[in-house]
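Researcher: Let's run the pair from yesterday's discussion. Sequence first, then tokens, for each.
Model: Starting with the first of the pair.
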Amino acid sequence: MTEPPQASQMFAEDAAGVLPLPSDYPGVRSSTPSTAIGGRATNWRTMTDSQAPKDWAALRDWIEWFTVRYHVPLSTVPTCWWRHAQLVEELSALHCSHRAAFDPADTGNGPISWHERLAVAMPRLSRAYAGGCSEGHRSLRPRTWSGATDEAEWDAWISQSHAH
């Protein structure tokens, strides 16, 4: 009678010396990366110049559709929306949520969830802009951190956890 093969003969150990389960073992999922429902979120903070045209165009297209479809007034999303960083972030988050909600892989709860998120986001959109550009774009004076922090005081502060 022949001995069954040892596990070490059937599978290769990984770098930590762990034997993987067979792919047909109950509960083992594929290790291939999946695409996220709705694609990826846009991180404007780390965006590269090569990514920018595609992401800006996709956001603009969606915002122009969204503002018409949902009758969003100019007092909430002005035509110069792209020059208001806080609006860009809010609208981009809504765009990302919308893509995920209406992704073909969604289970069917996405659209109602998106509308719930929209209801929560609308007051934030109104506050982010507050109608300041009704007679042409007016830039907000951006906050700056240049020279705002006393570095010696900061260094003393971070030397402790302040947990108590």
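Model: Moving on to the second of the pair.
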Amino acid sequence: MARLFLKRTLSGFAPADEPSQEVMRKYKVGEVYRADVVRPRSYRHHCLAMALLQLTFDNQDRYTDFTTFRKAVALAAGYTTSYPDLDGVMREEAGSLSYDSIPDDVEFGRIISSMMNVCAHILHDMGIDELEAEVSRYCDEHYGQEAA
């Protein structure tokens, strides 16, 4: 099952970003598909979070895999899930940023704020204001004005 983001237009639903356009191209025109339409937490906030992580990943040299990098940032930001392993030892793993995992905008904002601080440190103690401006610009370039 594919997940894509749609925006409501006068003529129906349209892809909200380039990745969603790519997914929609795989579906045949005229075919009937089933969808569960839900309004996720702020799409703009989600795009800003992805832009923050991608921009920081692109400008660091320690990690070569984005998923591993994202998990390292989440751990450093204190966004973890704890569970006991088979021996009863408590383990921690990075929390997911998915809409289903964090449906609340307030909680998501708190997590991303912590991640912003971690990313600013990774980028050689870049100022938060400067990083926020760069992330916003990156988001507009890569996710389009639809994310605004």
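Researcher: Give me one sentence on the second I can quote.
Model: Strands lie at 6-9, 12-15, 80-84, 90-94.
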